[in-house]
């Protein structure tokens, strides 16, 4: 009877699930494929070569936006030994073996008793039978795979228990189509040819040489001569085998040994096998010229390794998302370009110039560590700074064609830069390209940053900026007589009304140039950082809450089941201290990172806001100012994160003591106290969200003020109360501060308190007020 199923995948055999032998209806069994892969030497060598090539690629686990998170770190540590027995490369080799030979990779997800993933174990795909539902597909619920051992079904697996990941799947077949199966006929021919070549040296009924004897010789004469001849080369007379011998007249030799058993067909077989795996056959065939060999190598890279890498990434991303529940994290191959250095430097320089990557990312592509931002020592413009990077010194730059200085202006000898000849040649080539007009200055600066990553960017800019660029040749234009143009008189600036409403004679809000340019504190970067900090704090509070409850329930015998003890008894302190502090070192590092990111973001946004005013003064380069702000942001973040962690710990301890005191007064049992702790606000998601929003708002505004101070153009701060009198997050104190202006200190903070006594924003949790910069000229 025909089954009426819409969308059936293919016309599968009747009662398919009743026959449980894997790959029984597809002509070639898994066992045959394994025997072919192991029996043909050339095929085995190609498979092992592909596996070894995959070992050379490095990988990492990161978030979808390219950042390292606590989840990515945990997964990276776990994948160092996915099955808790083999290393990553061993585990990867087993998975690739299943892919190349059977195209039946099967990964069993072994879990702990609590249901968490414990290991990823690779099973023999030849023992796995795929079950079908009525549409011809793998069932979504219930058993989807069966493992057959010695003809018996030993286990049923659901989709969540076994990851079956063939690469080459066809609509009319159940199992994958491996590279070995694709050339099975060629392999059979090669095996028989290989066996024939082996038998040539080990078997046969025809001797290598036949000798005719004179016609008059009788059999007894031949036998007698045969014995004599053999005695000449018997054991003990081995040296005689290489000596010439005279034999009676009439003996004629007949050579029956065939010629060498290798021809162009062997080469053709090698090409087919290599083509199947997209490997260059250069080592197995007649000599290629250089161009052909290079093309074959590039083709093997693009059409062979890249598809396998893509498949592997897909499998790992599926494991990360479905098994570990981290869809926001991905498996990434670390790109290592095999380009010549000149082409690679051009590509990286272009990426940096276009803003696709930054200098540290360029260093990572070159296999180097990220450069840490170093604070710049204060001093007058143009002053010599001590050289700490050991790369390029603060000496006069010698332009092409100029003699090298032998002494500094003060008479001291010029320090040797220690650059190699290759570095000097590269620098001269770059500077000559700039002076000839072939290379823009910005591109040259980026190339120098990549070539000399330890050198301060201001030093490199000092090399490029003074260069005189030759103008491009242009055809002379025909002279035209034009009347002289009188310069337009400069418009006089409008007088500024010196009043802002605070009674101190400041310029009014609508007259100040920066008053209308308010920073968006709800921008995407800050929202992302705030969400990450909230997640970190939620996880930390939840871990400590569970640890407290477990410890409390395990000490029931010490409390005799009832809370007839005071909040400060030794048992309570021992119970609490056993799981203190609340914030561990790993969490502290993660919190510190979010503070750094928020403060740096705030500083960068503030400097962008002031960039046009900074150009008017041009006291120092913009990049130099950014580096200063980033360094200060890192220092501030260390102190702020430590203060936050200490405050959270102390507040949580106090809240917990109150819970215990209340439980004693109410006569609660230990189990009831545990329930109170589970539902306490001190460990809640709401508290983590409140802390994250408030602290990241402060970090953002603090970064703003660091940028204001470093710019050199801001002299004061003005409090701006958002939605004055309308928003329930504004308070009377904030409304008192509205539009008040205070001078700004050297660190960017308010030099004196605002009218309410507050020193800055935020004044309270969830405060949405802001502090605007006031230019020195507007004070």
Question: What does this molecule look like?
Answer:
The chain is mainly alpha-helical and 779 residues long. It folds into four domains: 1-203 and 262-332, no CATH class; 210-244, no CATH class; 335-372 and 421-470, no CATH class; 520-607 and 617-703, no CATH class. The chain has helices at residues 30-39, 41-55, 70-78, 88-101, 179-182, 184-202, 219-232, 264-276, 290-323, 341-353, 359-365, 421-435, 441-451, 457-464, 524-554, 556-559, 570-577, 585-617, 622-666, 670-678, 685-711, 732-736, and strands at 59-63, 106-111, 117-123, 128-130, 145-149, 152-157, 162-164, 209-212, 252-255, 329-333, 714-720, 741-743, 770-775. A three-stranded antiparallel sheet has the order 3-2-7. Strand 5 and strand 6 form a beta hairpin. Helix 18 runs parallel beside helix 21.
Q: Give the termini separation.
A: 92 Å
Tally the beta strands.
13
Helical proportion, percent range: 40-55%
Q: Strand content of the residues, in percent? A: 5-15%
Largest sheet: 3 strands, antiparallel
> Major sheet: order of its strands?
3-2-7
> pLDDT under 50 segments (min length 5)?
374-418, 475-506, 564-568
Could you tell me the radius of gyration in angstroms?
40 Å
Shape: elongated
Question: Counting H and I runs of at least 4 residues, what is the number of helices?
Answer: 22
Number of domains: 4
User: What is the typical, i.e. mean, pLDDT?
Assistant: 75
Report the structural category: mainly alpha
